[in-house]
Amino acid sequence: MSAPPPEDLVQQWESEQxxxxxxxxxxxxxxxxxxxxxxxxxxxxxxxxxxIKGDDINACxxxxxxxxPDLEVLYEDSQMVTLxxxxxxxFLAFRETPFLLEALQRLERNQPNLLPQVVFVDGNxxxxxxxxxxxCHLGVLSGLPCVGVAKNLLQVQGVYKSEExxxxxxxxxxxxxxxxxAAASGKxxxxxxxxxDKSSKPVYVSVGHKISMDTAVRLTHSCCRxxxxxxxxxxxxxxxxxxxxxxxxxxx
Length: 252
Hints:
Blueprint: H1 6-21, E1 43-51, E2 58-67, E3 73-82, H2 92-110, E4 118-122, H3 134-142, E5 146-150, H4 163-170, E6 178-182, E7 188-193, E8 203-209, H5 213-222, H6 230-246
Parallel strand pairs: 1-4, 4-5
Antiparallel strand pairs: 1-2, 2-3, 5-8, 6-7, 7-8
Helix pairs in contact: 2-3
Protein backbone atom coordinates (compact mmCIF):
# COMPACT_ATOMS: atom_id res chain seq x y z
CA MET A 1 0.00 0.00 0.00
CA SER A 2 1.54 3.28 -1.09
CA ALA A 3 1.86 6.20 1.28
CA PRO A 4 -0.82 8.88 0.98
CA PRO A 5 0.19 12.00 -0.96
CA PRO A 6 1.35 14.95 1.17
CA GLU A 7 -2.02 16.78 0.91
CA ASP A 8 -3.86 13.80 2.36
CA LEU A 9 -1.17 13.32 4.96
CA VAL A 10 -1.27 16.97 6.01
CA GLN A 11 -5.05 16.80 6.44
CA GLN A 12 -4.70 13.59 8.44
CA TRP A 13 -2.03 15.10 10.67
CA GLU A 14 -3.94 18.37 11.14
CA SER A 15 -6.95 16.37 12.27
CA GLU A 16 -4.80 14.33 14.68
CA GLN A 17 -3.21 17.48 16.11
CA UNK A 18 -6.64 19.07 16.62
CA UNK A 19 -7.86 15.94 18.41
CA UNK A 20 -4.84 15.70 20.71
CA UNK A 21 -4.79 19.49 21.28
CA UNK A 22 -8.05 19.13 23.21
CA UNK A 23 -6.20 16.99 25.77
CA UNK A 24 -3.45 19.50 26.59
CA UNK A 25 -3.52 20.72 30.20
CA UNK A 26 -2.12 24.27 30.46
CA UNK A 27 -1.92 24.48 34.25
CA UNK A 28 0.05 23.02 37.13
CA UNK A 29 -1.06 19.52 38.10
CA UNK A 30 1.70 18.42 40.52
CA UNK A 31 2.35 19.58 44.09
CA UNK A 32 6.02 20.33 43.39
CA UNK A 33 5.08 22.83 40.69
CA UNK A 34 3.51 25.24 43.18
CA UNK A 35 6.41 25.12 45.65
CA UNK A 36 8.76 28.17 45.55
CA UNK A 37 11.82 25.89 45.42
CA UNK A 38 10.10 22.99 43.61
CA UNK A 39 10.18 20.88 46.76
CA UNK A 40 9.36 17.28 45.86
CA UNK A 41 10.89 17.48 42.39
CA UNK A 42 13.73 14.95 42.20
CA UNK A 43 14.05 13.91 38.53
CA UNK A 44 13.99 16.02 35.36
CA UNK A 45 14.21 14.51 31.90
CA UNK A 46 15.52 15.77 28.59
CA UNK A 47 15.00 14.41 25.08
CA UNK A 48 16.59 15.14 21.73
CA UNK A 49 17.31 13.61 18.32
CA UNK A 50 20.69 14.05 16.66
CA UNK A 51 21.36 13.28 13.01
CA ILE A 52 24.44 12.25 11.10
CA LYS A 53 25.33 15.14 8.81
CA GLY A 54 23.78 14.66 5.39
CA ASP A 55 21.40 11.94 6.63
CA ASP A 56 17.93 13.05 7.73
CA ILE A 57 16.57 9.52 8.15
CA ASN A 58 18.88 7.83 10.67
CA ALA A 59 19.15 9.51 14.06
CA CYS A 60 20.13 8.95 17.65
CA UNK A 61 17.08 9.27 19.92
CA UNK A 62 18.27 10.35 23.34
CA UNK A 63 16.69 10.40 26.78
CA UNK A 64 18.49 11.59 29.89
CA UNK A 65 17.22 11.87 33.44
CA UNK A 66 18.95 14.26 35.83
CA UNK A 67 18.66 14.67 39.56
CA UNK A 68 17.08 17.87 40.80
CA PRO A 69 18.29 20.33 41.98
CA ASP A 70 21.87 19.02 41.49
CA LEU A 71 21.38 18.27 37.77
CA GLU A 72 23.58 15.16 37.82
CA VAL A 73 22.88 12.43 35.23
CA LEU A 74 21.00 9.48 36.74
CA TYR A 75 20.08 7.67 33.53
CA GLU A 76 20.72 7.84 29.80
CA ASP A 77 19.39 5.94 26.83
CA SER A 78 20.86 6.33 23.33
CA GLN A 79 19.11 4.47 20.52
CA MET A 80 19.68 4.56 16.78
CA VAL A 81 16.33 4.92 15.01
CA THR A 82 15.15 5.19 11.41
CA LEU A 83 12.59 7.92 10.81
CA UNK A 84 9.81 6.91 8.45
CA UNK A 85 7.52 9.96 8.40
CA UNK A 86 8.40 12.79 5.98
CA UNK A 87 9.50 16.17 7.27
CA UNK A 88 6.69 18.69 6.84
CA UNK A 89 7.04 22.06 8.64
CA UNK A 90 4.65 22.26 11.59
CA PHE A 91 4.43 18.48 11.88
CA LEU A 92 7.87 17.60 13.27
CA ALA A 93 6.27 15.67 16.13
CA PHE A 94 4.99 12.99 13.77
CA ARG A 95 8.61 12.22 12.82
CA GLU A 96 10.17 12.36 16.26
CA THR A 97 7.61 11.66 19.00
CA PRO A 98 7.30 7.88 18.47
CA PHE A 99 10.98 7.34 19.25
CA LEU A 100 11.10 9.70 22.23
CA LEU A 101 7.94 8.08 23.60
CA GLU A 102 9.52 4.63 23.18
CA ALA A 103 12.53 5.75 25.23
CA LEU A 104 10.26 6.91 28.08
CA GLN A 105 8.25 3.70 27.92
CA ARG A 106 11.45 1.63 27.98
CA LEU A 107 12.54 3.45 31.13
CA GLU A 108 9.12 3.00 32.74
CA ARG A 109 9.29 -0.75 32.09
CA ASN A 110 12.88 -1.29 33.19
CA GLN A 111 13.53 1.30 35.92
CA PRO A 112 10.22 2.97 36.82
CA ASN A 113 11.81 4.58 39.89
CA LEU A 114 13.87 6.77 37.51
CA LEU A 115 10.97 8.01 35.39
CA PRO A 116 11.24 11.82 35.16
CA GLN A 117 8.59 13.98 36.82
CA VAL A 118 8.88 16.51 34.01
CA VAL A 119 10.44 16.34 30.53
CA PHE A 120 12.25 19.16 28.72
CA VAL A 121 11.84 18.97 24.95
CA ASP A 122 14.18 20.58 22.43
CA GLY A 123 11.39 22.31 20.52
CA ASN A 124 8.10 24.14 20.99
CA UNK A 125 4.90 23.37 22.84
CA UNK A 126 1.93 25.75 22.51
CA UNK A 127 4.17 28.19 20.62
CA UNK A 128 3.28 26.60 17.30
CA UNK A 129 1.18 27.16 14.16
CA UNK A 130 -1.74 25.23 15.64
CA UNK A 131 -0.71 25.46 19.31
CA UNK A 132 0.45 21.86 19.33
CA UNK A 133 4.19 21.45 18.94
CA UNK A 134 6.48 18.55 19.80
CA UNK A 135 6.40 19.20 23.58
CA CYS A 136 2.57 19.07 23.59
CA HIS A 137 2.51 15.93 21.47
CA LEU A 138 4.98 14.07 23.69
CA GLY A 139 3.26 15.34 26.84
CA VAL A 140 -0.22 14.18 25.85
CA LEU A 141 0.95 10.76 24.64
CA SER A 142 3.24 10.13 27.65
CA GLY A 143 0.96 11.71 30.26
CA LEU A 144 4.00 13.49 31.74
CA PRO A 145 4.44 17.22 32.37
CA CYS A 146 6.45 18.63 29.46
CA VAL A 147 8.15 21.95 28.72
CA GLY A 148 9.15 23.08 25.23
CA VAL A 149 12.41 25.05 25.00
CA ALA A 150 13.48 26.24 21.55
CA LYS A 151 16.80 27.89 20.74
CA ASN A 152 15.41 29.81 17.77
CA LEU A 153 12.28 31.90 17.40
CA LEU A 154 9.50 30.28 15.43
CA GLN A 155 7.87 33.18 13.57
CA VAL A 156 4.27 32.22 13.99
CA GLN A 157 0.83 33.64 14.78
CA GLY A 158 1.95 37.25 14.49
CA VAL A 159 5.20 36.87 16.44
CA TYR A 160 8.14 38.06 14.35
CA LYS A 161 11.82 38.75 14.79
CA SER A 162 11.08 42.45 14.49
CA GLU A 163 12.96 45.49 15.79
CA GLU A 164 10.57 45.54 18.72
CA UNK A 165 11.37 41.90 19.47
CA UNK A 166 15.10 42.65 19.35
CA UNK A 167 14.70 45.62 21.68
CA UNK A 168 12.75 43.45 24.13
CA UNK A 169 15.63 40.96 24.09
CA UNK A 170 18.11 43.77 24.73
CA UNK A 171 16.03 44.84 27.75
CA UNK A 172 16.45 41.46 29.47
CA UNK A 173 18.93 42.44 32.17
CA UNK A 174 19.72 39.18 33.98
CA UNK A 175 19.05 35.45 34.08
CA UNK A 176 15.39 34.81 34.85
CA UNK A 177 14.10 37.90 33.03
CA UNK A 178 11.51 37.18 30.35
CA UNK A 179 8.86 38.74 28.16
CA UNK A 180 5.67 37.23 26.68
CA UNK A 181 5.29 36.03 23.10
CA ALA A 182 1.72 37.05 22.29
CA ALA A 183 -0.17 35.88 19.22
CA ALA A 184 -2.14 38.32 17.08
CA SER A 185 -5.18 37.18 19.09
CA GLY A 186 -3.51 38.43 22.27
CA LYS A 187 -3.02 34.95 23.72
CA UNK A 188 0.42 34.41 25.28
CA UNK A 189 1.85 31.33 23.56
CA UNK A 190 5.26 31.37 25.22
CA UNK A 191 7.96 33.52 26.74
CA UNK A 192 11.42 34.60 25.69
CA UNK A 193 13.68 33.86 28.66
CA UNK A 194 17.17 35.08 29.42
CA UNK A 195 18.15 31.77 30.95
CA UNK A 196 21.58 32.72 32.28
CA ASP A 197 23.45 35.84 33.34
CA LYS A 198 26.23 34.66 31.00
CA SER A 199 24.06 34.44 27.88
CA SER A 200 22.26 37.44 26.43
CA LYS A 201 20.62 35.31 23.72
CA PRO A 202 17.25 34.07 25.00
CA VAL A 203 15.56 30.69 24.74
CA TYR A 204 11.87 30.38 23.88
CA VAL A 205 9.82 28.56 26.50
CA SER A 206 6.29 27.26 26.02
CA VAL A 207 3.90 24.94 27.81
CA GLY A 208 3.91 21.35 26.62
CA HIS A 209 1.51 19.63 29.01
CA LYS A 210 0.49 19.60 32.68
CA ILE A 211 2.37 22.78 33.64
CA SER A 212 1.58 26.50 33.66
CA MET A 213 3.48 29.09 31.64
CA ASP A 214 4.96 30.81 34.71
CA THR A 215 6.05 27.52 36.26
CA ALA A 216 7.59 26.38 32.97
CA VAL A 217 9.68 29.58 32.79
CA ARG A 218 10.72 29.41 36.44
CA LEU A 219 11.65 25.74 36.15
CA THR A 220 13.60 26.29 32.92
CA HIS A 221 15.65 29.03 34.55
CA SER A 222 16.35 26.84 37.59
CA CYS A 223 17.69 24.09 35.30
CA CYS A 224 20.12 26.33 33.37
CA ARG A 225 23.84 26.29 34.05
CA UNK A 226 24.35 27.73 30.58
CA UNK A 227 21.95 29.09 27.97
CA UNK A 228 20.17 25.78 27.27
CA UNK A 229 18.55 23.94 30.20
CA UNK A 230 20.78 21.13 31.42
CA UNK A 231 18.41 18.23 30.59
CA UNK A 232 18.29 19.28 26.92
CA UNK A 233 21.99 20.18 26.84
CA UNK A 234 22.96 16.77 28.22
CA UNK A 235 20.63 14.97 25.80
CA UNK A 236 22.15 16.89 22.89
CA UNK A 237 25.76 16.33 24.00
CA UNK A 238 25.27 12.62 24.65
CA UNK A 239 23.42 11.90 21.42
CA UNK A 240 26.16 13.67 19.43
CA UNK A 241 28.83 11.76 21.35
CA UNK A 242 27.03 8.49 20.61
CA UNK A 243 27.08 9.29 16.88
CA UNK A 244 30.77 10.30 17.01
CA UNK A 245 31.64 7.03 18.77
CA UNK A 246 29.60 4.70 16.59
CA UNK A 247 29.95 6.51 13.27
CA UNK A 248 33.45 8.04 13.48
CA UNK A 249 33.68 8.58 9.71
CA UNK A 250 30.55 10.72 9.68
CA UNK A 251 30.67 14.41 10.42
CA UNK A 252 27.98 15.12 13.03
